[in-house]
Design a protein that fits this description.
Layout (H helix, E strand, L loop, with lengths): L1 E4 L7 H15 L6 E4 L11 E4 L10 E4 L5
Parallel strand pairs: 1-2
Antiparallel strand pairs: 3-4
InterPro entries: P-loop_NTPase
């Protein structure tokens, strides 16, 4: 398992595309998993699931979405 905290924070657009492409390729290997923490919604990347946490000012619980349910 690889944990990534805001992996795109200091990257330009081309580097972000390269990162997502590399993670998608590596994630196909058996036994590989990535947990990505990001304040931005990650679009155009096939994710198995997402967990959306509410802002501190919002009441409620985290929402979990499977990869097929993301919009």
């Amino acid at each position: 398992m690889t944990l990534l905290d805001e992996p795109t924070g200091a990257l330009d657009a081309a580097s972000i595309r390269c990162l997502w492409r590399t993670l998608a390729d590596v994630s196909r290997e058996p036994g590989r998993a990535f947990v990505i923490a990001s304040g931005e919604r990650i679009a155009n990347v096939p994710l198995a699931a997402t967990i959306e946490l509410p802002l501190q000012a919002e009441a409620g619980f985290a929402q979990v979405h499977s990869g097929d349910e993301r919009a």
